[in-house]
TrEMBL record:
<dbReference type="InterPro" id="IPR001646">
    <property type="entry name" value="5peptide_repeat"/>
</dbReference>
<protein>
    <recommendedName>
        <fullName>Pentapeptide repeat protein</fullName>
    </recommendedName>
</protein>
<dbReference type="Pfam" id="PF13599">
    <property type="entry name" value="Pentapeptide_4"/>
</dbReference>
<feature type="region of interest" description="Disordered">
    <location>
        <begin position="1"/>
        <end position="26"/>
    </location>
</feature>
<keyword id="KW-0677">Repeat</keyword>
Length: 214
């Protein structure tokens, strides 16, 4: 089992972002977005490099195909943030409070998600490589059709997860408590779980395999 490589972030001195409105295909380099209300703004295709986003509201923010590189995102909050087909590389997402975040078709590489709670996270058909979910709560995350390589769940609640048609390689689920999987138990080849987790999943496995337990 190969462990995930974590990002090594050293942000340069940052300039405050003062524009007030994101722009499609905008180029943001070395900026600090602090307590910005980005609700409903259109930043499709934008690039964030060496940036810090702290305490920002991202309700319905359109960031499809965005590239977020070497950046720290802290205390983001919002529902229905659109990040489909975006790229996150060398990123820390800390203490997020998000719901219905659309990340289908996204690419995540060397990403740490630490703390916070994310409901209904859509990662369908996405690619996750060297990703760590740590001390966070994921409610009904959707990994259907996704590719997960060197992904770790550390002290993390994973509730009603969907791994249908996903591909897993070196995925460590031992730190997930609870570990609840509603679809895709047959896709867990390439993952490691604990003995206790196996016992917890036994009723679901028995039902999926048509085994009657009396």
């Amino acid at each position: 089992m190969k462990g995930a490589r974590r990002p090594e972030l050293r942000l340069p001195p940052l300039e405050p972002w003062t524009e007030g409105e994101l722009q499609p295909d905008g180029d943001y380099d070395g900026l600090e977005f602090r307590d910005a209300d980005l609700t409903g703004q259109d930043g499709v295709g934008a690039r964030f490099m060496d940036c810090a986003l702290t305490g920002c509201a991202v309700d319905g923010t359109a960031l499809g195909r965005a590239r977020v590189l070497d950046s720290v995102l802290t205390g983001l909050r919002g529902v229905g943030t659109h990040l489909a087909e975006s790229t996150f590389r060398d990123v820390e997402l800390i203490d997020a409070r998000l719901g219905g975040t659309q990340l289908h078709g996204a690419v995540l590489e060397r990403v740490v998600v630490r703390g916070g709670k994310i409901d209904y996270l859509n990662l369908r058909e996405s690619s996750l490589k060297d990703v760590v979910f740590e001390s966070c709560v994921l409610v009904e995350p959707d990994f259907a059709g996704a590719s997960l390589e060197r992904v770790e769940f550390v002290d993390c609640a994973l509730r009603e997860a969907d791994f249908g048609s996903a591909t897993l390689q070196d995925v460590d689920l031992r730190g997930a408590a609870p570990l609840e999987i509603v679809r895709g138990l047959d896709r867990l080849s390439g993952a490691v779980i604990s003995t206790g987790q196996l016992l917890d999943l036994a009723p679901v496995l028995a039902a999926e395999w048509g085994i009657r337990v009396e």
